[in-house]
Design a protein that fits this description.
alpha/beta; Arginase, Chain A; 11 helices
């Protein structure tokens, strides 16, 4: 069985300039590496070209005024935030990435799985920041809800908490938003504390799992098994949208987590296996990551999705974690997981 993979060469327009950590060349570079180094894996992908999202589609998750402000700012190379300048072509590329995630979500419903470049999770209803112009994850989820779905699970494993996605769905009980991210006291956007659990009808449907800095694979597995999997079972999603790139790796230059390539693949594989076991369609999106090993991290994600044999390597030593430090991290995570369960127990039987 081939796996649909959504890609367009014009994704390269999603670029923030020569000195910025996010360059548009990453997409084509990854596709070339995948095809050249792992042709058998590449041959299992059904490469599909997406269509750009219309303004009407964007407005499923974003205010009308915001969409038009973005267009106006691009004309004068304006800034959405200090780190997010709109350069010529970036808005069209953002629309294309968003359209790809919408197309991939529909494809996942029909074929059980789809993969693509996406995860612009820092764009909220009326703002953009953190290298994110439009929130493709939220637009895709809203599209599926408008087309008849009643329960969408968004599982955000990016090192940075998905504040834009959280804000869009904070009062929405049809979307269960779960984010595993680096402790917000230590990393942008400084959101995603355990007490942020939604509002109104959405109380209990936002779940933040702050991971201690330097967190390794076993800590992620524990968070998944104690919080994510029980919620998944009780919520019974009709589709799972996972987003997150290579930035939980210990080599990422903007973050401070501790996954290696094997544990990143294992995390993605765990999600893929759960989706298969539950017979729930899975849309997997990756786009983030910073530093010299982004492509290797993305290959590790593909390895996890497909369960493929792929020999990957990062020729850079990781920080060695002492037994005492690991015990400290474990205790810190245990306390957070216990607090999450206590916060969510009024809303979920599993806790």
């Amino acid at each position: 069985m081939t796996v649909p993979f959504f890609y367009h060469p014009d994704f390269s327009g999603y670029d923030f300039g020569a000195t910025h950590p996010f360059r548009g060349e990453r997409f084509a570079s990854f596709m070339t590496e995948l095809e050249d180094r792992f042709p058998e894996v590449y041959s299992t992908l059904d490469i599909k070209k997406p269509k750009a999202a219309s303004e009407q589609t964007l407005e499923l998750a974003h205010d009308h005024a915001y969409v038009h402000r973005v267009k106006a700012l691009e004309k004068r190379r304006g800034f959405l935030s200090l780190d997010t300048q709109l350069l010529p072509g970036s808005v069209d590329a953002a629309r294309l990435i968003t359209g790809a995630s919408v197309d991939a979500a529909r494809e996942a419903l029909g074929r059980g799985i789809a993969v693509g470049f996406g995860g612009l999770h820092h764009a909220g209803p009326d703002y953009g920041e953190g290298f994110c112009i439009f929130n493709d994850v939220a637009v895709a989820a809203r599209t599926l809800l408008d087309e008849g779905l009643e329960r969408v699970l968004i599982l955000d494993t990016d090192a940075h908490q998905g504040n834009g996605t959280m804000d869009i769905f904070y009062g929405e009980r049809r979307v269960l938003f779960i984010s595993l991210h680096q402790d917000p006291r230590t990393l942008y956007p400084g959101r995603g504390y355990v007490d942020e659990i939604g509002s109104g009808d959405g109380l209990g449907y936002t779940v933040n799992i702050p991971m201690p800095t330097l967190s390794t694979g076993p800590l992620y597995t524990r968070a998944m098994r104690e919080i994510v999997m029980p919620l998944w079972d009780e919520f019974e999603p009709e589709i799972v949208i996972r987003n997150g790139g290579s930035d939980p790796l210990y080599t990422d230059v903007l973050t401070n987590l501790g996954l290696d390539l094997e544990s990143l693949s294992e995390l993605i594989g765990l999600i893929r296996a759960k989706a298969a076991e539950s017979q729930v369609p899975l849309l997997d999106l990756f786009l983030s990551g910073y530093g010299p090993y982004v492509t290797e991290g993305w290959l590790a994600i593909v390895r996890g999705i497909l369960g493929a044999e792929m020999d990957l390597e990062i020729p850079e030593n990781r920080i060695m974690i002492s037994d005492a430090k690991m015990e400290q991290m474990t205790v810190e995570l245990e306390r957070k997981l216990e607090k999450i369960e206590n916060n969510l127990s009024p809303y979920w039987e599993v806790f």
